[in-house]
Amino acid sequence: MNVSRRQQRHEVDAVLLMGGNIRGNAEYPPGSFFSLEALEAEIKSDEVVAVVPMPGWLLAEGIVATHAGDPIPGWIQYDLGVQEDINVSPPVVTHVAGEPIDPGRIYRVATKIGDLTNGQSPPWTAYYSAHPKVLPPKGAYVNVQAELMGYFARNLWRKLWDALSLELAEICDVDDCNPEGRLETLDSSGNGEVTVEDIQVALRDLLGFSVDDREMSLAEFVHNFVDTTGSGRITMSDCELFCDEIQEDFVRDKWRLSYKRVPAPAQTETASASTSDN
């Protein structure tokens, strides 16, 4: 959620999810495909989260309240930036976003809003029942499947960009990004516009992915990301914009990913590559 995208900038300190929201009911051996069907099986299509303000003391107490006994459906899962000392009883939350927790700080936490008042974490229920106005409106909710697909799409565009650089290696160097050549390589019809079908072909021909033309959901997400104006069309202006900012953008995100201690890009790229296999 902290990967910068033109459409959204969430900037959260932590992600806290109660067990059961992300099913995790299947094993995916190394080298196996993670398909769109698998994503839909793991996460309900209408599963949403939102960013809420949460005092550090409440964040810690809310987690510990569900971890004090045996695992239950309300057991709180957290991202790798959150650390907990489980060698004491009850356990103690020691870090958030990779830094020592500050009980008095207000953290930005992405979580499922309904879980804040469903009673499974009594500290959360008491606090947010007493302070309902701090909860965001439904219009600010983020669909989990869409967020993941957007992340996969962004990573795929980076792969396509790198692949295009190789295709244009003789005429595109550090000082000449060559947006014209990139557009021409992707534009199969020669009309100066890149379509969803062109993206689907590029996933197959430039990246070597196995795709099925009956399912273009991932190509549509990539197309939507590259369409910087929201016009529904990818044109020269989009390629020129990415030439101006893509390198700086990716360097910044690489630092953020490292700082936030999320899983290595290779893990997510595997998922993003194979989501088009159906």
- Following the backbone from N to C, one meets helices and strands in this order, namely EHEHEEEEEHEHHHHHH
Q: What is the CATH-assigned architecture of the largest domain? A: Orthogonal Bundle
Strand tally: 8
Mean pLDDT equals 82
Percentage of residues in strands: 5-15%
Overall, the morphology is elongated
Assign the CATH class of the largest domain. Answer: Mainly Alpha
The poorly predicted ranges are 259-278
Largest sheet: 5 strands, mixed
Structural category: alpha+beta
Classify the fold: give the CATH topology of the largest domain. Answer: Recoverin, domain 1
Q: Percent helix among the residues?
A: 40-55%
Q: How would you explain this protein's 3D organization?
A:
The chain has two domains: about 15-140, 5'-nucleotidase,  domain 2 (Alpha-Beta Complex); about 145-275, Recoverin, domain 1. It is about 40% helix and about 10% strand. The protein has helices at about 35-40, 55-65, 120-130, 145-165, 180-185, 195-205, 215-225, 235-260, 265-275; strands at about 15-20, 50-55, 75-80, 85, 90-95, 100, 105-110, 140-145. The protein has a five-stranded mixed beta sheet. A three-stranded antiparallel beta sheet has the order 4-5-6, with helices on one face. Strand 4 (about 85) and strand 5 (about 90-95) form a beta hairpin. Helix 5 crosses helix 8 (about 235-260) and helix 6 (about 195-205) crosses helix 7 (about 215-225). The protein starts with 13 loop residues before the first strand and ends with a helix.
